[in-house]
Every structure is written in C-alpha cells, then in structure tokens.
Design goal:
The complex is a heterodimer of chains A (269) and B (295).
Chain A lengths: L2 E12 L7 E12 L3 E5 L6 H9 L6 E6 L2 E2 L5 H4 L3 E4 L13 H9 L13 H14 L16 H13 L5 E5 L7 H18 L2 E5 L3 H6 L3 E6 L2 E7 H5 L3 H12 L5 H8 L1
Parallel strand pairs in A: 3-8, 3-9, 6-7, 7-8
Antiparallel strand pairs in A: 1-2, 1-4, 4-5, 9-10
Helix pairs in contact in A: 3-5, 5-6
Chain B lengths: L1 H26 L7 H17 L4 H24 L5 H19 L5 E3 L6 H7 L4 H24 L2 H11 L1 H6 L4 H27 L1 E3 L6 H16 L4 H24 L7 H14 L17
Antiparallel strand pairs in B: 1-2
Classes of the chains: A alpha/beta (269), B mainly alpha (295).
The complex binds adenosine-5'-triphosphate and magnesium ion (MG).
Chain lengths: 269, 295
C-alpha cells in the first residue's frame, strides 16, 4: 500500500486574533492510502467540510503540511489542485453550471487541468465519449446532451457532478454529504453509483456522510471527527462488525463529551 | 416610415453596446458601470484619430482596443485588488471622464465636420444617409454576433461562461476564474467602446457627456429581448438583443415624436427600464416555463 494523501499537524482557525476565534482543525493528522474509500462522520460543525476545503485549497491552512503523493499542496491554489482532486458538493447546484448543457458541463470537466485554447469545446468525438459515460449512470441522460443542466432534478445533477468529478480519474475524490439533499430512493441510487465508480477506477475517496448506514456499508475505512481531531479510525474486520446502534452510541457519548480513553483505544486498535 | 427605418438603423448600432453590457451583466454576472466611461472613450478615441487623419476603419478598431484596455484595468481592479464590482465601475467612469477630456484635447466635444467616417465613405458611393447607418450597423452587429457565437463555443469561451454561471464549479474544474473575469471585462468594454466609436461617427461628433445613461440603454435592450424571446441558445440570445435594442430605439423615438422634450429623455429612459425590469415579475406574462429571474 502506498500513501496518497498525508495531512500533518494541520491547524485551521477562523477569525484568528478576534474574540470569535474558532479553532476548527487542531494538530490534525490523517493519512490515506491509494485505493482507500474512507467515510467521514462527525457531528455538525466539527470541521468535516473545513477539512475538505483545506485539502482542495478553498481554504489555506494556518500551520502544518498537506501532501498528495510527493507533492506539497499547501502553496498551490485550488485551481491547480483541481487537476488531481475531484469534488462533489452537498448542494447539487454547486457542482454543475446550470445554464450550460450537460455536454458543455462535461467538456469543462474533461479539460480539467489542461490548458484551454480556441479549439471547439465540444466535438463529435467528445459527444460520443460523454454519451458512453452517461450511459453508465443509467438515468437516460445520454439522450439529453444538449439540455441545460438547470432542467435536471437534484439527483440527476448530483449523479452528473459525480461523473464529472471522476471523468479524468483524479488522484483523490472528495464527497461532501453528496446524497444528503436527495430523497431516500435517489440517495440510494447515487450511493450505489458512487460505489460502482469507486470500484471501477479504484478511486481513492474521502466521503463525508451523516448517514450511519452508508458510512458502515460503503468503503474500507471509517473515521469519526470530533473537536478538530480524528477520534475514531476503524477499518478491516473491525469495520465489518460495526452496526448502526454502535455508531450512534459512539456519537451520543461524544456529543456529551465523555468518550473515554478506553473507547478510543478499542476503536482505534 | 422614415422614423421607423431610422430607429432600426440606429438600433443596430446601439445593439453593439447592448451586447457589450450583456457580456458583463449576463455572461459574467457582474453589474459593470464602466460602460458610462468606456462608451465616450470609444467615441473620443475614434473621433480624435479620424480628425488626425487615421482612416475610419482603423480608428474604429483602435477605439475598440482602447475600450479593451479600460476593461483590462477594470478587471484588475475587481479581481486582483478585490474591489467590489459596483465600486470598480464607479472608479472607472470617474477616472475615464478625465481621460476622455484629454483624448478630446480638453474640449467637451469634437466635431467630425469635413472628415471621412464609415458612413460618409458609403454615402460617397451613392448610399443614402440612413442606409449608410443601417449598412454599417448591420455589418458590425453581424460580425460581432458571428465572432462571439464562435468564441462562446471554444474552450476558453466555455470557461468564461462557466465562470459567470458558477464560480465554485469553475474553480473546482481548474478554470482560472480571475483570468476569465478580466477577459470578460475586456470583451465587454471593447464592444461598448466600439459602439461609442460607431455612434459618434454616425452623429458626426464625440461629446464627453455622451456616456450618461448608456448602462440604462444597454440593460433595457438586454432585458426587453429576454422578456420577449426567452432565448436559450447563446447565438440566438445575441441576435435577439439586437432586436431588443431596435425596439428600445423605436420606443424612445416614438415618445420623442409624441412631444417628450429631449431634456426629459434620460428620465424617460430610466422609467422605461424600470418598467421593463418589472415586467418579468408580472404573473400574467409568465408562460409555462419559468421566467428568467432578473438579477
Ligand atoms: N468560511 C468560514 N468562516 C468562518 N467560520 C467558518 C467558515 N467555514 C466554517 N466555519 C466554522 O467552522 C466550523 C466547522 O464548520 P464545517 O462546515 O467544517 O462543519 P461540518 O463538520 O462540515 O458541519 P456539517 O456537518 O454541519 O456540515 C463551524 O463552527 C463553522 O462555523
Ligand atoms: Mg459540512
């Protein structure tokens, strides 16, 4: 196993030096290996989205180092990191441009990390490629290449975002509660799709979710964040044994601030 | 009849201004007031170059380049210096007022009497005054629509549209959003200055005060076209803006013939724009599909 993402002693605070100072990530450490599919859980406001924003470069970090492979990401702006990192956001309208057509949105994802020139953005070859990829979704979008994305439902948009984020097989895929705003059925569909895509590309993935069932069911590793730290890190056989009640119990105790040392040892052993 | 033809001919020239405004207001989703300074800039540069003996075609192109340079500065103010769009526009139009006076050699206006213009070149070939306006307008707007339609479908053009539509998505797809915004500012202001140069040639003079109200004219044309035609494809959108611009001219010329005094015209055009902005809110005008909300 090779290390893909390494986050070392990262600190990130908002409003530093003011009375509203809010230390969100505190001496944060996390290592992801190539091929890992990691679910991230944690209560509201613990810094899960902040973590993703720091990895993707939307936020800079105060101290510490974020590396992808042997590259240090800290100094690279978000748009450079986008070459290696694909993202799906919680809000379905964030990941796609609503006035552009499906084909145009995909063309933009297709050219991620490449220099743009005055060539045609969508040609017949690309359309064929896009159609083929859209068939993979099984939502019939392959016949609607020229439809502006604003006419798609939230679930369809999220599926498209997911396809766009993985179109050029990024080194790392970041999913931020990407099924949270979908109805249970669509949410299930998009989760299944995520799993298929991740398997097909052996895509290293970090997935934030509030759905305990999903966190257990998908991926090979589960981490729980609390107050700027990873407080639980479960993988392998141990993860197989996790149940929803067990996770909920962990969550509850943590919210009360009494996750004892013994629990941590048990869960991270 | 002549009045209608005149409105159509002039509307074609003003359509270029409207497309310039569309570039920032719709494509980039930035309300840029620089137009009020770059429109007279284009007029001043074009007219003073012609007066100095530069051929009208070259003078017109250079006027557009001057507008693009102004757009470059506006773009840098907004992106690199992070000045809000509204303030950027105010800074630009204030600063450009002095620049325009300088270009006009410290005069409030500069006449083209006795000099060649694009329109007069045609008139020399036997075309009527009105027809010359229409021909120059039609050729210019035709070229602008063709070139922009092509551009919007290139890789860069698509990146520009994505930036205006959804910045977060654009950035997540490694688009340099600041560069795209600067480019949009340059294209928009280039077109607005081009319109200024053409309209000054048609009027026969450049005036330092001719920028007042341009943003209202541009916006009214864009919004009339959207309310009436609900364009979806970008090429169609550009074309209907030309129609919107002609309709706006017709309304203005109509009220002038109905006896509205020229000095009341700006007030009237502001009222027309207010009404046009209100239109999409009227329920009975909304069709089956969602109306495009006016930002
Ligand atoms: N741009 C910002 N400026 C100031 N504070 C911020 C900013 N972004 C996040 N925060 C703060 O950081 C903390 C963590 O927020 P974050 O969005 O990372 O939480 P989260 O774990 O994703 O929560 P949720 O499960 O509700 O999405 C919150 O207290 C939030 O108010
Ligand atoms: Mg969040």
């Amino acid at each position: 196993m090779t290390m893909l993402l390494s986050i070392e002693n990262v600190n990130k605070a908002f409003g530093r030096g003011t009375i509203h100072e809010n230390c969100v990530l505190r001496d944060f450490n996390l290592v992801l290996n190539t091929g890992d599919f990691v679910s991230v859980i944690g209560s509201n406001g613990t810094g899960k989205t902040t973590l993703m924003n720091c990895i993707a470069g939307s936020y800079g970090v105060d101290t510490g180092e974020i590396r992808l492979g042997d590259m240090v990401l800290n100094k690279q702006p978000a748009r450079r990191r986008a070459k290696y990192i694909g993202r799906v956001f919680q809000n379905p309208s964030t990941g796609t441009a609503s006035d552009l057509t499906i084909a145009e949105n995909m063309a933009i994802a297709w050219r991620r990390g490449m220099r743009s020139g005055l060539g045609r953005s969508v040609d017949a070859n690309l359309r064929a490629t896009f159609r083929e990829r859209l068939e993979f979704l099984g939502l019939g979008l392959e016949d609607r290449l020229d439809v502006p994305v604003r006419y798609l439902s939230g679930g369809q948009r999220q599926a498209l975002s997911l396809l766009m984020a993985t179109l050029r097989q990024p080194k790392l895929l970041l999913l931020d509660e990407h099924t949270a705003s979908l109805d249970p059925n669509t949410s299930l569909q998009v989760m299944e799709l995520t799993d298929r895509l991740v398997r097909e590309y052996r895509q290293t993935t970090l997935m934030i979710t509030h759905n305990m069932q999903n966190a257990i069911q998908y991926g090979n590793r589960l981490i729980m964040l609390h107050e700027g730290h990873v407080v639980a890190d479960v993988s392998g056989a141990e993860k197989e044994e996790l149940t929803v009640p067990l996770l909920v119990e962990m969550f509850r105790r943590q919210a009360n601030g009494d996750l004892g040392l013994s629990d941590k040892v048990v869960l991270t052993a | 009849m002549d009045i209608i033809f005149s409105s159509v001919a002039q509307g074609l020239l003003w359509a270029i201004l409207a497309i310039g405004v569309f570039m920032t207001y719709r494509v980039l989703d930035i309300a840029d007031l620089s137009a009020e300074g770059t429109f007279p800039l284009g007029a001043a540069v074009g007219v003073s170059l012609i007066v100095q003996g530069v051929p009208p075609v070259a003078a017109t192109i250079l006027a557009m380049v001057a507008g693009m340079l102004a757009g470059l500065i506006a773009g840098i103010l907004h992106t690199k210096m992070k000045i809000p769009a509204l303030l950027t526009g105010i800074l630009m139009l204030t600063g450009l007022y002095s620049v325009n006076l300088r270009v006009l050699a410290n005069r409030a206006n500069l006449s083209l009497a006795g000099h060649s213009t694009l329109m007069r070149t045609l008139q020399a070939a036997g075309v009527s005054r009105l027809a010359s306006t229409a021909i120059v307008g039609a050729i210019s707007i035709g070229l602008v629509v063709l070139i922009l339609t092509w551009f919007f479908h290139t890789e860069v053009g698509l990146s520009l549209r994505a930036t205006g539509n959804n910045e977060i998505m654009a950035e997540a797809n490694s688009i340099n959003i600041n560069l795209m915004k600067v480019l949009g500012y340059m294209l928009g202001n280039g077109l607005i200055a081009l319109a200024g140069a053409l309209i000054a040639q048609n009027n026969g003079y450049a005036d330092v005060g001719m920028g007042t109200g341009t943003i209202v004219i541009g916006l009214a044309s864009v919004i009339i076209s959207e309310v009436l035609f609900r364009p979806k494809k970008i090429a169609w959108h550009l074309l209907v803006i030309a129609i919107g611009s002609i309709l706006y001219r017709l309304v203005i010329d109509l009220v002038l013939t109905l006896g509205v005094q020229p000095q009341d015209l700006k007030l009237f055009s502001a009222i027309v724009l207010a009404l046009v902005l209100w239109l999409p809110e009227l329920k009975w005008l909304q069709g089956k599909e969602e109306s495009r909300s006016v930002k």
